[in-house]
Write a structure and sequence with these properties.
Layout: E1 14-15, E2 33-36, E3 45-50, E4 56-61, E5 66-70, E6 76-80, E7 92-97, E8 103-108, E9 115-119, E10 124-129, E11 136-141, E12 147-152, E13 158-164, E14 169-176, E15 183-188, E16 194-199, E17 203-210, E18 213-221, E19 228-233, E20 239-244, E21 250-254, E22 260-262, E23 276-279, E24 286-289, E25 293-295, E26 298-304, E27 312-318, E28 322-327, E29 333-337, E30 342-345, E31 351-355, E32 370-372, E33 377-383, E34 387-393, E35 398-400, E36 409-410, E37 421-422, E38 431-432, E39 435-436, E40 445-450, E41 456-461, E42 464-469, E43 474-479, E44 484-489, E45 495-500, E46 505-509, E47 515-521, E48 528-531, E49 537-539, E50 547-551, E51 560-563, H1 568-571, H2 574-580, E52 618-623, E53 627-628, E54 633-641, E55 647-654, E56 657-666, H3 668-671, E57 683-690, E58 694-703, E59 713-719, E60 728-734, H4 748-760, E61 770-776, H5 782-791, E62 800-812, E63 815-818, H6 829-835, E64 837-838, H7 839-848, E65 853-861, H8 871-886, E66 889-895, H9 910-922, E67 929-931, H10 932-950, E68 958-961, E69 967-970
Parallel strand pairs: 53-59, 60-61, 60-62, 62-65, 65-66
Antiparallel strand pairs: 1-10, 2-50, 3-4, 4-5, 5-6, 7-8, 8-9, 9-10, 11-12, 12-13, 13-14, 15-16, 16-17, 17-18, 19-20, 20-21, 21-22, 23-24, 24-26, 25-26, 26-27, 28-29, 29-30, 30-31, 32-33, 32-36, 33-34, 34-35, 37-38, 38-39, 40-41, 41-42, 42-43, 44-45, 45-46, 46-47, 47-48, 48-49, 50-51, 52-54, ...
């Protein structure tokens, strides 16, 4: 048969080493890559597949991940991470799930054109088929799971592989490379005896399978379109449906001889393509979709009755092209779309499950993409076309709530005298003053902006961000993380800012195109994270889970993902992030080079994570196992294994609060001893803990010597029910009168009294009783505050604790200090270190409190002499670290100046007034309870608005939550 080449020797596949068998390979990483992670795909979902039973779905995306989902409700099951690199390397275009759901095959663009075979139950990489002649477009398993068909790019046709030893090995069963275009359609007949393919040469090919090898049986040239893209056998195997990428047409052929049978009704469709197709499992319905759309942002699936011969209906499911369809066992189908979404459409036309990227959508909003003159603030839209606009200010790392007219932001310049850029929107042929601008083959221009002085212009394309001089000469170009839909150039000439399809916004130095900052706003309009290429970051309270580092372990091992929150101790750097975009006259961010010898309160600065880092330890809870336990005291046995960065500390949390820790210093750098080899014997430890009645979650983490945090290990145990309700302990500290009268305040004591009185008057129901201790003015010494904190050790695990501090606060290096009454010169670091109450002091006391439910409330004004530069952002870092180190909820307000004297109408400082409003019912959020996290959300949203109402400068709280949520009051 023409084009058939028999296999002479089998292709050997690399095996996946079992965990622990190759520790040396895991010791360090090289060139980790920052990646967005929202629990869903961040770029076009190119393929979707199902097991035979329709229980599990597999999706593959241009975001370089594949994901497994529960079909009935869209619950995420696993993330599959093959090896990736910059540019297109690692983008996934094809996916297939074995009929039994045990094996996931994914492929796309890689150096060796690899096909990765993952074990679905645990996400481990089982084997790799390398050396395909070109990019892989399509994968399909045979009905018995024994064969894997591969559709290839560039006229290379198809290959078939036969699995051996549960697909730990594979051999090439046959191939056909005699194609005139890319192969996108590959399908086995229901009985597994035949294979059909569709290619962009307009031809449909049918193969008979003999001993797994393809023998070309028939072929035909299709006339409904030139790019036959997708095909599917009917469930009875008698017919083949074919969809076209370049025309809104579908052809149904007889499967035995490929002669036309009928054409489903598409007479009303005039543009786009139907490059995705599927039959329902019972054969009653035929489905097709693609780039055809009902209107901009409204892409639909067409469903025909009678297997395509009957009437149709259209169901809108996505805002961009639908790229793949697959049939499910219950008669419905699943779809994948270019807007990074996927879903399940029932036979009744109802969507039963859907997953979409929780991101900002920059499409169709070039004119609405605004930036400040210095690039330090940006306005964008969360929705297609610029809907739900929002503004973020990097000087304060906060959302701006003022009206757009007051924000001082500028739209992109689209016209300039003597410089006319045409055909730049959704075009492959942009031009400058009538002269073509060269793009790469297949590259599409999507966005454009001209410099304010007309000296240059930028193009954003599907693949690159490009900067051209006024004469059209290319000054630089850089690969994009996904398609670039909006660009703008700052008026000061320093920045090119771009918005991408993955939801990120990025700042490039205009002079050389180097990326300096990235920003990802979550679709909820609250959470965000910003990061630099070297690894520093700042984030909202929940934002540090939205991005992390992809760590490759070589092509034959699944990659690893470490969220940036696991680097918090060294790399959480709000001041450094704000300084990146600050005007050049401002103080630059801290350099990454090593300074003079660090002191205990001055940890060494972070290294550039792009150069690699030692992997954090691997931990486990040895005992107890999950289930009921006897008694209130429990011994917890834990273990940790070094993976290259040593084992610096083991930390045990109970219901989110830190209850025990052990410093191990298992590394040469930390202890002065020779470094332990990665993979050495497990380090063991035990902790004694007091349980709360009912459900208890034990969580173990470990830190390497580089203070990178491990993946946690968790066990849930059940203790006996509580015999009585918990108690509430309130410690309220307020300082109006300082020994140095220059520091005196007006509202700290009234604020502390207000919080105490609220809880004292709270209605019963939550707590059996409430113990309140107050310390004011001259009694608020360091010794007295520490003694009062130590009295909280009398609490029980099931109790709740509220600690409220009002007075002056200051940050020195990585420590935040509350200023007691006797400190007379808080602006002097030495005096503050001697007499202040540091966040480290607070952390040690909070960890010693048996109560697991702890909230810290801080209203700390700052003396004017101590306020400068980015000090407020340093406060954020230190206070967030206090919350993380103790496993508590923290809500704090720190300001450069005293605010209380300007707000006499409230009777309180604005922060405490907002707290009391929330506790009084405004934070109930639809229920009758005010929990710690509900209060955090309310204060975070209400405080800026209230402060803007009473003074020009908005005030933003510091909020951080690592403990378990619990009710503080009933409304």
């Amino acid at each position: 048969m023409s084009g058939i080449r028999r296999l002479i020797a089998s292709l050997g596949l690399a095996l996946l080493p079992l965990p622990g068998l190759a520790p040396a390979a895991m010791a360090t990483t090289s060139a980790p890559i920052p990646r967005i992670e929202t629990g869903s795909h961040a770029a076009a979902v190119r393929a979707i597949a199902s097991d035979r039973a329709g229980r599990v779905l597999l999706t593959a995306s241009e975001d370089k991940t594949a994901r497994l989902w529960r079909a009935r409700d869209g619950k995420p099951l696993a993330v599959l991470r093959p090896s990736i690199d910059a540019g297109n390397e690692g983008k996934l275009y094809a996916a297939a799930l074995s009929p039994d759901g045990e094996l996931a095959a994914v492929a796309g663009w890689s150096a060796d054109n690899d096909i990765y075979l993952f074990r679905a139950r645990d996400g481990s990489l089982l084997a790799r088929l390398s050396g395909q002649p070109n990019v892989v477009n399509r994968l399909a398993f045979s009905p018995d799971g024994g064969l894997l068909a591969v559709g290839l790019w560039g006229g290379h046709g198809i290959r078939l592989y036969r699995g051996q030893d549960g697909w730990r090995r594979a051999s090439l069963a046959g191939e056909d490379g005699d194609y005139g275009g890319d192969t996108h359609g590959v399908a086995f007949s229901p009985d597994g005896d035949r294979l059909a393919t569709a290619a962009h040469d307009g031809r449909l090919r049918l193969y008979a399978l003999r001993a797994g090898a393809p023998w070309r049986q028939a072929e035909t040239t299709l006339t409904a379109g030139r790019q036959a893209h997708a095909l599917a056998f009917s469930p009875d195997g008698r017919q083949l449906a074919v969809g076209f990428a370049d025309a809104p047409r579908v052809s149904v052929l007889r499967a035995d001889d490929l002669t036309p049978a009928y054409s489903p009704d598409t007479r009303d469709l005039v543009a786009g393509g139907l490059g995705a197709i599927a039959w329902s499992r019972d054969g009653r319905h035929l489905y097709a979709a693609g780039s055809w759309r009902q209107a901009p942002g409204r892409n639909a699936i067409r469903q025909w009755r009678d297997g395509g011969a009957g009437r149709h209906r259209d169901v809108t499911v996505a805002s961009d092209s639908i790229l793949d369809l697959t049939a499910l066992a219950d008669g419905g189908i699943a779809y994948a779309a270019a807007d990074a979404s996927w879903g399940v459409l029932g036979a009744d036309g109802e969507i039963t499950a859907r997953a979409a990227a929780p991101r900002a959508d920059p499409r169709a909003n070039q004119e609405g993409f605004l930036i400040a003159d210095d690039g330090g603030a940006v306005r964008f839209g969360y929705e297609f076309g610029g809907g739900r606009p929002a503004t973020f200010d990097f000087a304060s790392l906060t959302w701006r709530r003022t009206a757009p007219a007051d924000q001082g932001l500028r739209p992109p310049v689209l016209r300039h005298p003597g410089l006319r850029v045409d055909d730049w929107r959704d075009s492959r042929a942009p031009s400058l003053n009538g002269r073509p601008l060269p793009l790469s083959a297949g590259e599409t221009s999507l966005a454009m902006a001209i410099a304010h002085d007309g000296s240059a212009f930028a193009l954003g394309t599907a693949w690159f961000v490009r900067l051209h001089g006024r004469d059209g000469r290319e000054l630089w170009k850089t690969f994009t993380p996904s398609a670039c839909f909006a660009v703008n150039l700052s008026a000061d000439g320093r920045w090119l800012v771009a918005a991408f399809g993955d939801g990120s916004l990025r700042w490039y130095r205009r002079r050389d195109g180097v990326e300096m900052l990235a920003f990802f706003p979550h679709a909820n309009g609250v959470d965000w994270v910003a990061w630099t290429p070297d690894g520093r970051y700042a984030a909202s309270a929940e934002g540090d889970r939205l991005v992390g580092w992809h760590v490759d372990h070589g092509p034959d091992r699944a990659a690893e993902f470490l969220p940036v929150g696991r680097f918090a101790e060294r790399y959480h750097d709000p001041a450094g992030i704000a300084a990146v975009l600050a005007p050049e006259r401002a103080a630059p961010p801290a350099k990454l080079a090593a300074p003079t010898k660090p002191t205990p309160s001055t940890p060494p600065p972070p290294a550039d994570l792009r150069r690699g880092f030692g992997l954090p330890p691997e931990v486990r809870i040895v005992a107890p196992g999950a289930g009921p336990v006897a008694g209130e005291r429990l011994r917890v046995e834990v273990g940790a294994r070094d993976r290259g960065a040593g084992i610096d500390e083991l930390r045990l949390l109970l219901n989110g609060k830190v209850v025990a820790s052990q410093i191990t210093r298992r590394s040469g750098k930390a202890s002065g001893k020779p470094a332990r080899k990665a993979g050495d014997a497990e380090t063991r430890a035990s902790f004694e803990v007091s349980l709360e009645p009912g459900r208890n979650t034990l969580r173990l983490i470990a830190f390497g010597a580089n203070r990178v945090e491990s993946e946690p290990a968790e066990v849930i145990v059940e203790a006996r029910p509580a015999p009585e309700r918990p108690r509430l302990h309130v410690l309220a500290v307020g300082v109006n009168e300082y020994r140095n009268g220059v520091l005196n305040l007006d509202y700290s004591v009234p604020d502390a009294r207000g919080v105490s009185e609220f809880f004292k008057a709270a209605p019963g129901g939550l707590f059996r009783d409430i113990a309140i201790h107050q310390i004011f003015d001259e009694q608020a010494t360091r010794a007295n505050i520490l003694a009062s904190l130590r009295r909280l050790r009398e609490s029980r695990p099931e109790d709740a604790v509220v600690v409220y501090l009002a007075g002056h606060g200051e940050t020195v290096r990585d420590d935040w200090y509350f200023v007691p009454h006797e400190v007379t010169a808080p602006e002097q670091p030495e005096a503050l270190a001697r007499g202040g109450l540091s966040s480290r002091d607070l952390a040690e006391e909070l960890k010693s409190i048996p109560a697991r439910k702890v909230v810290i409330l801080i209203d700390a004004c700052k003396s004017g002499a101590a306020a400068s530069g980015f000090r407020g952002l340093q406060d954020r870092r230190a206070l967030a670290q206090l919350s993380r180190a103790t496993g508590t909820h923290l809500i704090a307000a720190t300001t450069k100046e005293q605010m209380a004297s300007e707000l006499p109408t409230l009777g309180h400082g604005v922060f405490t007034y907002t707290l009391l409003q929330g506790l009084g019912g405004k934070a109930a959020a639809g229920g009758n309870d005010i929990t710690a996290r509900k209060l955090m959300v309310y204060v975070e949203q209400a405080l800026p608005e209230l402060t803007r109402r009473y003074r020009a400068e908005e005030q933003y709280p510091v909020v951080n939550s690592t403990g378990m949520d619990f009710p503080l009051a009933l409304h």
